[in-house]
């Protein structure tokens, strides 16, 4: 069970994610996040002394949650061969369709110095290791990861995002490649 401090921190991170999803990222302020969380700015500053600290915490939280969910989903797959790839495909598909949390994290991370990106790099390395050692051809694992990266970045940067039907067909094709 989370301590009171951990619960408050999670509330702040959830509020920040929701605010960014609902508004333009560049308009993010500590005041707006505090208001969304229903706490004082001082309460927010206790947990995150600066906007940069909040963005680092947000990025860490999102990538850590993605990794935990990836592990849980893969462990539930009764077919060992390709289970990590299928878990990654399903989780990424859900994320892109619902709230694009990873897009938010990537945006937040892009504003920070390279030292602060360790969580993101570690998460990508972890995921890539699982995909390349998934019992399927490692080239297929790389294709899956890079295709999903492309879908995220296309949506994030609004660079010719593909239509929903084609996106769904792309995910289905990637899923087929895991068998």
Automatic annotation (TrEMBL):
SUPFAM superfamilies associated with the record: Homeodomain-like (SSF46689), Tetracyclin repressor-like, C-terminal domain (SSF48498)
A Pfam family assignment: TetR_N
Superkingdom of the organism of origin: Bacteria
Span of domain HTH tetR-type: 6-66
Signal sequence residues: none
Keyword Transcription regulation in record: yes
Alphabetic keyword roster: DNA-binding, Transcription, Transcription regulation
DNA-binding segment(s): 29-48
Gene3D superfamilies referenced in this protein's UniProt entry, alphabetically: Tetracycline Repressor, domain 2 (1.10.357.10)
InterPro entries: Homeodomain-like_sf (IPR009057), HTH-type_TetR-like_transc_reg (IPR050109), HTH_TetR (IPR001647), Tet_transcr_reg_TetR-rel_C_sf (IPR036271), TetR_CgmR_C (IPR041479)
Annotated protein name in UniProt: Transcriptional regulator, TetR family
Organism: Priestia endophytica DSM 13796
């Amino acid at each position: 069970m989370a301590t009171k401090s951990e619960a408050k921190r999670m509330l702040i991170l959830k509020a920040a994610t929701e605010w960014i999803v609902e508004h333009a990222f560049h308009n993010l302020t500590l005041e707006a996040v505090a208001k969304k969380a229903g706490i004082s700015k001082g309460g927010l500053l206790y947990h995150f002394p600066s906007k940069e600290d909040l963005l680092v915490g947000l990025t860490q939280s999102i990538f850590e949650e993605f990794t935990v969910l990836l592990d849980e989903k893969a462990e539930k797959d009764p077919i060992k061969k390709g289970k990590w790839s299928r878990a990654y495909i399903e989780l990424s598909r859900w994320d892109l369709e619902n709230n694009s949390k990873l897009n938010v994290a990537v945006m937040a991370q892009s504003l920070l110095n390279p030292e602060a990106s360790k969580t993101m790099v570690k998460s990508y390395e972890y995921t890539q290791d699982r995909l390349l050692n998934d019992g399927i051809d490692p080239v297929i694992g790389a294709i899956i990861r890079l295709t999903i990266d492309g879908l995220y970045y296309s949506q994030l940067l609004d660079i010719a995002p593909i239509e929903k039907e084609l996106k769904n067909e792309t995910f289905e094709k990637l899923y087929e490649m895991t068998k």
